[in-house]
Amino acid sequence: MLDKNELATLLPGVDVKIPSEGDDVTKYISRWSNTRLSLPAAIITPVTETDIISTIHFTSARKEENLKVIPTGGGHGTFVPIDSRTLYLDLRNFKSIHLDEDAETVTFGGGVVSGEVLKYLGERGWYTSVPNSNAVGMVGYVLGGGSSPFNAVKGLAIDNLIMMRVITAGGVVVKVGPESVGEEADLFRALCGAGFGFGVVVQVTLKTWRVENLGMQEDKVWTRKLIFPPTAIRTAAGTFVKIQKPDDRMVVVLLLMRAPPSAPRPGAPMIMLNASFFGPVTDAEEAAVALFDESITSQAIVADTGAVSVSSMNDFSAPLDRHGDFKEFYSAWSPGLSAETIVTAFDRWLAFGDATPEAKAASFMVFAAKGTKAMLEHDPESQKFFPRPLRSRNVFVQAVPWWTAEKAEDSSRTWAAETMALVNAPQHDRLVEGNGLADRDRLTAHAANLSKGIDLSTTWATSQLKEIRRIKGIWDAGNLFWNPIVDGV
């Protein structure tokens, strides 16, 4: 066990906690999911960069203990194992956000979460690349590639990354960006889509844009929402498929979830089809004309058109941001889906819930359709580590098993893995038949949504995996920081 007095002397004024055996880990750590979470060796909440550097030196001096420094922001990295060898570095004090209107950039600290950036910028009439949740750590989001509702008009977060300030395994502070050269350029490339475990990122600068330039009425996002009963799944699925290659300014989401406890029928299956448009209302209505078809709306329980400010556009997902229980992300990027595939996925989701009461209430599925124009305009030479083949695929599918008792873990993961095989049927069938797959065809996932035991060849090509290991060896030869490729998931 680590010596708390020694750490307190090394880190004066820093909150240091060393759990006792048998303690409840959630007393110390609040994470979106309790999967892969057990008591760490210590929880350190640094106040300054010097505190982080001292922690790194402290850990490096104890190589025989094989400790891993794991920096954390929003706590959504369900695939990161927290255990007795972990020095849990809580960056909650690194909360600065600064908008530079002249440079058209926003700079934020390593402990900032997405909702804080969204609201800070939105209140000032600006926006940047953010995920569709307010609770995700912005650094982890960017390191995983940074997919957002603005993919089709602005590209990924890594395509708009100006600078990262990183504290390395040697305790040195470096700033890296698109203009970096030599080994620092390699580090920057790795941070663009494969950035876990290369150092402690304490600051990030992204491009930002004026909301008014989107041309939206009253600077609000146009929305159209349809909610269907289970009996209308074929209608909902067919409608999604019709618009799964949308206008670049529109994002279409089909969500399968169960009604919350406050609803008239708690636990009832819900099918929600939602479109958001970042542009003029007349263009929105034309792009989403299928969502006004009377033959479709007549089957909906709810059919609403509205508008929401950029600052609050993620508020709808707040119930899904709750910390605790056991959850994982399983995801895939697809060039398109058939209505039959979505219907089959719906039926399997229902059956999984009925067979697994511990996961019935909260497990959900998302089908999201976006344009690809701006994503394809960036990184034509595939220098970054968000695989190029994914940039050309319109549909993002995510299955989220959410279980409340550990005994449901195996069945939850089985359902999610089988769902990914369903939406990637051609690839799955070829593997089963022993025909193999080229790297390009194998790639379906991205780093932000890793899960326990995932085949990393679905996230990075063979050449990329080799290059990531090489760069890791340069910047963290002693493997001080946990890395999914070096340490496994």
Automatic annotation (TrEMBL):
Coiled-coil intervals: none
Source organism, top-level taxon: Eukaryota
Matches recorded under SUPFAM superfamilies: FAD-binding/transporter-associated domain-like (SSF56176)
PROSITE patterns in the record: FAD_PCMH, OX2_COVAL_FAD
GO molecular function, one term: FAD binding
Domain FAD-binding PCMH-type residues, every copy: 36-211
Keyword list, A-Z: FAD, Flavoprotein, Oxidoreductase
Pfam families hit by this protein: FAD_binding_4
Family: Belongs to the oxygen-dependent FAD-linked oxidoreductase family.
Cross-referenced PANTHER family: BINDING OXIDOREDUCTASE, PUTATIVE (AFU_ORTHOLOGUE AFUA_1G17690)-RELATED (PTHR42973), FAD-BINDING PCMH-TYPE DOMAIN-CONTAINING PROTEIN (PTHR42973:SF7)
Protein name in the entry: FAD-binding PCMH-type domain-containing protein
UniProt source species: Recurvomyces mirabilis
